[in-house]
From TrEMBL:
UniProt GO molecular function: UDP-N-acetylglucosamine 1-carboxyvinyltransferase activity
Encoding gene (name): murA
Protein name: UDP-N-acetylglucosamine 1-carboxyvinyltransferase
Active site: C117 (proton donor)
Keyword Hydrolase assigned: no
Residues involved in UDP-N-acetyl-alpha-D-glucosamine binding: R93, R122, P123, V124, D125, Q126, D305, I327
Annotated function: Cell wall formation. Adds enolpyruvyl to UDP-N-acetylglucosamine.
Amino acid sequence: MEKLKIRANGALNGEIIISGAKNAALPLLCASLLTRDTLHLTNVPMLRDVKTTQKLLQGMGARVLTDNVHEFEINCSGINNTCAPYDLVKTMRASILVLGPTLTHFGEAQVSLPGGCAIGSRPVDQHLKGLEAMGAEISIEHGYVKARAQRLQGAHIVMDMVTVTGTENLLMAATLAEGTTILENAAMEPEVTDLADCLVKMGANIQGIGTPTLTITGVEKLHGCTHRVVPDRIEAGTFLCAVAMTGGKVVLKHTAPKTMLAILEKLSEAGAIIEAGDDWISIDMQQRPKAVDIRTLPYPAFPTDMQAQFMVMNTIANGNSKVVETIFENRFMHIPELNRMGARISAEGNTAIIEGVEQLSGTTVMATDLRASASLVLAGLVASGETTVERIYHLDRGYENIEQKLSGVGAIIERVSN
């Protein structure tokens, strides 16, 4: 099993190219199920979750061509299987995203209830409630969601909670439904907007993109298009936190600063000098970071996917801080590992209190989920001695070549096998 070995090496300096967003690429790949034409995607990150989605689509009968340099062509005209099996779905919760497009295009779908990161309950009830409101017949049998509909019907759906994948599933389903669907309390994340923009290129009729109310008028069929995946704001935020912790000056290229305002504001509060253009961000940090309080909320507020990275920055910050996690109830599993490295973090319920220390101490730590993995890598960049991060398959689900990108700006980090 692979692991990362990291040693602190002072300030980071140079440039990092940011990859396409995992959380945008996965629903875009699933959107190919809505048309018999070819969907051409560029700037696709080469990640474990992307490869899993590729296998899932191929298992359903899709033809997926990739040059392995971030471009995919997906054609679903040969779909002969509407089942997403457990052996693939168990590794990636986003597999549920095949449910809406498969059902609306082919009239039936069977999708295993999903697995993925162990960061708490992420129920699919909002997905199912919305599809039932659109006329789907749904049952859960032997761990599978089984759905049928001759043709989905437009409906007015008020979502009980903001859910990104729920919004994406219902949005895709509504594009081919008969009549008009209104989704209220829809997620506004940039990745949802990116999906909606691609669907419009494919011929969908969607109003209210980027707002909490989406109005979708169904069409008879969609066609293919070419679409570029938006930059990964979470990858960019992770590298910004790395520089905020180590010091130095780094420029991130191929970014989307306008999607990261809450993150950039908190980094400025921590003492970093942030500059940004249309597609680049520079960070200059010449001091120990100041402690900053964090509260996670749906976009455009501070993202839950950046909580662990800011928490580890706070462990070596000047002062005390509080982190409140409101999205996932079990997303503090990195705390025991950070405390083993000398951090002083106490947690009660969804609140963590961090007392900043001057330095962490390297040791062997174990990744428990994707973003927790990133926080442990960041800790290793500033810890004395050597840090070994095990179970990095979590990391590979969301970060493309993280060790190469960090090495390129001066980090000492190496991937090794047992």
